Fold these 2 entries.
Entry 1:
Amino acid sequence: MNQSTSTGTTTPLPPHFDPARVGEVWKVPYQALADEARVWADQHNIRPAAGDRFRIALLLIDVQNTFCLPGFELFVGGRSGTGAVDDNRRLCEFIYRNLGAITSITATLDTHQAVQIFHPIYLVDDAGEHPAPHTSVSYEDVAGGRWRFNPEVAPSLGITPEHGQALLLHYTRTLKETGKYDLTIWPYHAMLGGIGHALVPAVEEAVFFHTLARRSQPVFFIKGQRASTESYSAIGPEVLYGPDGEPLGEKNPSFLDLVTENDMLVVAGQAKSHCVAWTVEDLLGEINARDKSLAGKVYLLENCASPVVVPGVIDYTGQAEAAYRRFAGAGMHVVRSTDPISAWISG
């Protein structure tokens, strides 16, 4: 096989990649990378992705500064404290070493504004104070009056205060009835137009390098921009309908195409306990509705994703591990980025 169709041959790490800088912000030098990628492809016999006989799609979930860099709003450190930085170093190395095997890259971008149901300004208590970041708001908290909709933001959302309160009550009740996490109040994060919203520079650099070397345009999906629902999953919101049956968001069916139109779908990103787990959960539901055997095409990079852990506050490690065991039980593969792709298949 030539390089573009082989899953057993890897390329070396290109000279521009500096693993020590994965946890930093910098301006990606696009033109210099484009020139390097062309030479690199010629040197290593890397052919355009359109000629791949075995198609591998890579799905990157919310690999953004806001989640992946220390000091940013929702850094996913995991129990080690350096989780997302270590994950992204391995992810970049995976992309570069398998440059000739990865056919396409799709990335999701969590995308928010200040006034959304999971940000502090959306809720108030009797004293007019907002909940602190990482507060868990249950249905009982809302029904009992501990937290209520902030009527001052109603005009900017185009709703009445009464509807805002009804929606909050309905939302938290639906989360409870469907067995999902209670409403979590997150720090303001992934703000549209802000630096936290951008891809981690080291990963952006790797995606851009892949684009130029393989002549394969990446696809980006915006998620999470609706004010009245969280969207951990890239496939659909936590709650689809409001108290009057009004849609709060819609499902994106195109992710199933990544499975049906490729021979392998590889998944990585942040956070393992939330946006990765819920996206894979929804994808599994789509697969089961179509053809359960398609689950065998999905490969989860367990060492390129970390759970949400806030020491002394919350630790979702157990939930993340349970989700991955469930996915494996359904036929998906839990693998490591440091193992050759050929070993995944033969194993």
Entry 2:
Amino acid sequence: MGNTHIDYHKEMDIDRLCFERASDRFLQTGKKEDAFDVYFCYLEMFIGDYEKTSRMIELLSEFEENGSRLLLKHRDHYSHSVYVFLLGIAVFESVDMFREAYASFYNLKDEHEQAHHFLKYWGLTALFHDIGYPFELPFEQVCSYFEVSKKERETVPYIAYHDMEIITTIGEELREKVKSACGIYAENTNQLFAELLSQKLGGTYGKTTEDFIKILKSKPENPNENGYYMDHAYFSALILFKKLFEEVRCPLGKQP
């Protein structure tokens, strides 16, 4: 049958067209099935191994579908993430000031390189910012069962997560890669996130790295110290880090 290999540029064009059609279809329907297609196309384009990440996406989709039945008040985090992703693309495409500021910050000269860079890293941010929601759902279900307001939550049992070291510990090989990329040697994700938060926000809020470590550690273990709220954002950051850099083994290096 001859050579059926598709060269890289044609393959990228096919991926781009599939992504555009999936996005258009989702914007017409807002359905989770069409949201799933957007996730699929993105992962094929930028992660390259959908099989390793499909379980995470399918799990979130199923939790979303079932969660709406288990909670009286429930916001769809799955389709919501795709809307956020596409909204960001629209802003990047239509707002010159934003696009120029982004290119300047990352020192990107070529407009195609800018678009590719933004699509990749904004996609990671937007599409996966709620993947930790399944950790929050059981906590909210217990509170909902007792039909209490947030002010009354201290009067009923609540869920907390312990032995978090099982998933927060960073393997030795990855520690060295993180050190090379960020200049931070961290034994676990709390240390890494706390150091990054301290660098960016410590001066503004008067917090040290140790302060941030204590706050992050309390998120899963002591929701009572956090307004009786289980912060799925914490789990989202943790799971995404572990998924990308330990399981899928995406390259981790200094960014421009």
